[in-house]
Every structure is written in C-alpha cells, then in structure tokens.
Amino acid sequence: DGLAHPVRELLACFEADFGAFGRTPVKICGGVARCEYLVQRIADMCVVHLERAPQPERVTAKGAALLAGLH
Q1: How far apart are CA 35 and CA 65, in angstroms?
Q2: What CA–CA distance (Å, rounded) separates 32 from 52?
Q3: Which tens digits make up the pLDDT trace of 2-34?
Q4: What sign does the dihedral 14-7-23-54 (CA atoms) show?
Q5: Which of 13, 40, 55, 69 is a good FRET partner for 26, with 20 to 30 A between their CA atoms?
Q6: HEC per residue, the chain
Q7: What's the distance, CA 62 to chain centroid?
C-alpha cells in the first residue's frame, strides 16, 4: 500500500489537470511492473487498467533521460 497510495494521489492530480483517464490504460514500468501483486494492488486502489511496458527497465531509463534533458 506504501506505493499504491502515492500513485493514486499522482493520478488524481493528473485527472484534475488533464481530465479522466476513462478506459485508457495507464502504462507501468520499472521494478514495480515485475511484481504482479503490486500491479494489481495499484490497479485496484486507483480503479484504472494498468498495462506493463514491453521492456520496463528501458522505459524507466528513457524517461529519466528525457526528464534530465539528455535525449
């Protein structure tokens, strides 16, 4: 639950700024994506459909690079 609550708060902020996700799946990546229990717990708490990225570790690295302005 320690990860699910902050994700729920973050998604609530996104929805407030950009509107509801509706049926659009939310992509999940990184180490959390490897744990079926955590993925299901986050999906249940956030009431969203989570979809794993095809190569979660690479997506995380690319996202970090984009945020750092290196890509």
Answers
A1: 24
A2: 10
A3: 888 998 998 888 888 888 766 788 888 877 888
A4: positive
A5: 69
A6: CCCHHHHHHHHHHHHHHHCCCCCCCEEECCHHHHCHHHHHHHHHHHCCCEEECCCHHHHHHHHHHHHHCCC
A7: 15
